[in-house]
């Protein structure tokens, strides 16, 4: 016969074991649910961030890339508030560009960094990239002004590189631009991706490229 | 090993839960509770010294990353540039809670940036705290069936 203490010990042992399984099980369930809802993003034709990242990973490219600055004056003076600035290195893991900023005017952009969160920076940070692309959203000036205002309202919020498009607590440099325009009724993501990468903005039919270098 | 398994699996689960805003906050709270329970589990098996060692070891990657960044070792390798990103990923389980904090800044950096570094020792402390709580004396009146 089992003593009460033995039953208590068996129950404690089961609790101790099941506790460790909580997150693996939840993680697997979430992976299945998210995967099932977004299975169309796993093909190369979709041009999704996850497919691009996996393909880059196979080539040994894992991050934002790096390289040497290339000479050439960039016509930053042509930028208008609401324009999008993209910068990149040749070996970026998630597409042609590694970084994006929303032009605010007066040589300032709203960007996202881990150590500064969503923050206002000087445009000169883009001068060192070997790839640069300047985009103009095809929208009236007042819509772009509202997008800028929206983005500024999220200043200093948390940067998280893997921030999904959903939610408004975690951001990355591209998500804030996408969301600022989505809030104005302009969706800059053509494929309904889970994440949005700088290159997705360049592919949007709602923007025009008015300058590019190194591409 | 158990604490490491808990942490790494929670990085994946809570990272995925961010797809459903709100669920990530719930899971972050569950994570804190489970870390505490793991501390209690360890207390039943280890001495205080042993528990302190485990409390440090299961967050060792976090300590290494945080100290590398604070000591500015990024100049030794190009890869070191990614340490701050990796630290943030390592801190994923509690990020949903940090994201609820107001967007205050200190020396031009957001509050959460400093908490990324502070989170590592706080998690060690959360794990170790059950060791500081007085153990209940064992009951002698257990009956048998």
Write the layout of secondary structure elements.
The complex is a heterodimer of chains A (215) and B (145).
Chain A: H1 4-37, H2 49-58, E1 84-88, E2 99-105, E3 108-113, E4 117-122, E5 131-137, H3 141-152, E6 158-159, E7 170-171, H4 173-182, H5 198-203, E8 207-213
Parallel strand pairs in A: 6-7
Antiparallel strand pairs in A: 1-2, 1-5, 2-3, 3-4, 5-8
Chain B: H1 2-17, H2 23-45, H3 48-57, H4 60-70, H5 83-90, H6 95-98, E1 105-106, E2 109-110, H7 111-132
Antiparallel strand pairs in B: 1-2
Helix pairs in contact in B: 1-2, 2-7, 3-7, 4-5
Could you explain the architecture of this structure?
- The complex is a heterodimer of chains A (215) and B (145).
- Chain A has 215 residues and is α+β, with helices and mostly antiparallel strands.
- Chain A has helices spanning 4-37, 49-58, 141-152, 173-182, 198-203, and strands at 84-88, 99-105, 108-113, 117-122, 131-137, 158-159, 170-171, 207-213.
- In chain A, the strands form 2 sheets. In chain A, strands 4-3-2-1-5-8 form a 6-stranded antiparallel beta sheet. Chain A has a two-stranded parallel ribbon with strand order 6-7.
- In chain A, a hairpin with a 3-residue loop joins strand 3 and strand 4.
- Chain B is mainly α.
- Chain B is 65% helix and 3% strand.
- Chain B has helices spanning 2-17, 23-45, 48-57, 60-70, 83-90, 95-98, 111-132, and strands spanning 105-106, 109-110.
- In chain B, strands 1-2 form a two-stranded antiparallel ribbon.
- In chain B, a hairpin with a 2-residue loop joins strand 1 (105-106) and strand 2 (109-110).
- Chain B starts with a helix and ends in a 13-residue tail after the last helix.
- At the A-B interface, helix 1 and strand 6 of A face helix 1, helix 2, helix 5, helix 6 and strand 2 of B.
């Amino acid at each position: 016969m089992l003593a009460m203490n033995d039953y208590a010990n068996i129950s404690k042992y089961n609790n101790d074991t099941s506790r460790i399984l909580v997150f693996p099980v939840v993680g697997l369930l979430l992976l299945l649910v998210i995967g099932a809802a977004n299975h169309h993003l796993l093909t190369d034709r979709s041009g999704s961030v996850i497919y691009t990242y996996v393909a880059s990973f196979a080539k040994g490219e894992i991050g934002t890339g790096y390289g040497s600055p290339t000479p050439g004056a960039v016509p930053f003076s042509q930028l208008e508030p609401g324009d999008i600035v993209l910068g990149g290195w040749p070996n970026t893991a998630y597409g042609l560009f590694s970084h994006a900023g929303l032009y605010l005017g007066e040589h300032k952009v709203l960007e996202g960094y881990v150590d500064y969160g969503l923050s206002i920076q000087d445009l000169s940070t883009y001068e060192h990239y070997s790839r640069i692309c300047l985009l103009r959203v095809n929208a009236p000036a007042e819509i772009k002004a509202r997008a800028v205002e929206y983005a500024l309202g999220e200043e200093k919020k948390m940067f998280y590189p893997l921030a999904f498009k959903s939610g408004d607590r975690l951001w990355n440099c591209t998500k804030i631009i996408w969301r600022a325009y989505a809030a104005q009724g302009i969706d800059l993501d053509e494929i309904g991706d889970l994440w949005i990468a700088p290159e997705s903005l360049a592919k949007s039919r709602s923007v025009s490229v008015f300058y590019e270098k190194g591409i | 090993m158990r604490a490491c398994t808990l942490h790494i699996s929670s990085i994946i689960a809570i990272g995925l839960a961010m797809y459903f805003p709100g669920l990530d906050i719930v899971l972050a709270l569950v994570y804190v509770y489970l870390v505490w329970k793991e501390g209690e589990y360890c207390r039943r098996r280890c001495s205080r010294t042993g528990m302190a060692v485990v409390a440090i070891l299961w967050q060792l990657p976090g300590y290494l990353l945080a100290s590398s960044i604070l000591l500015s070792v990024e100049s030794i390798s190009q890869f070191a540039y990614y340490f701050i990103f990796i630290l943030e990923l390592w801190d994923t389980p509690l990020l949903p809670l940090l994201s609820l904090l107001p967007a205050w800044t200190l020396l031009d950096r957001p509050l959460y940036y400093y908490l990324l570094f502070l989170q590592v020792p706080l998690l060690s402390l959360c794990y170790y705290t059950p060791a500081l709580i007085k153990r209940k004396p064992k009951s002698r009146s257990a009956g048998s069936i």
